Fold:
Amino acid sequence: MANSTNTLAAAGDTSTNRLVFGIVVDVNGTEIPISTDDIGNYITNGFNFKLPQPVHLGSFSDLFNWLSENFGVTVPDPKDLPSPLNDMVNAVVTLVFTVDQLAFHIPGTQAPANDKVTYNLRISGSWDQAKPIIPGVNVLKLKGGVFGVANMPNTQQSESR
Structure:
C-alpha cells in the first residue's frame, strides 16, 4: 500500500504512516482539539469535525460584563427598561448558553458527486432557576430552550464520520 501522505513521503517510502496535525483551542475554559486525520491528503479526502463535548459559553450578561471590562462598552441594564419589557429582556440576558452539538463535513476533491457539505449546530440556553409558565402555578416551569440548524442526517449528527 502506498504511503497515505505521499506528498510528504521520502523517495522509496512505502509505509502506511500518516502525518496528523492539529491545534487545541480554548473556548471559555473548554479545550477543543481540532486535527486532520491525514494532513497530506485532506484536500482529496476532505475535512470532518465533531465537537468532542458540549462547550459552555456563558450568558449575554457575561458577554456584557466582558465588553465593559475589556473595551469600556456599556450595555444598558434591563432593569432600567419599563415593565414588562424589563422582565422579558432580563430573562433573555440571563440565559446561560451551551453549544451542545457542532459537527461539519467538507468533502474532498475525490468525494463522490453526491457528497456535499453537511453541518449540525445545536445551542441550548437555560436559567439557574426554572420560570413558571403560568404566574403563580409552579407545576409547569420553563427551564430554557434549544435552537439550531442542520442539514446532516440524524445518523451523522450522533456519530463521527
Summary: Strands lie at 22-27, 30-35, 47-50, 55-59, 96-106, 118-134, 137-150. The chain has a mean pLDDT of 82. Helices lie at 42-45, 60-71, 85-93, 154-158. The radius of gyration is 23 Å.
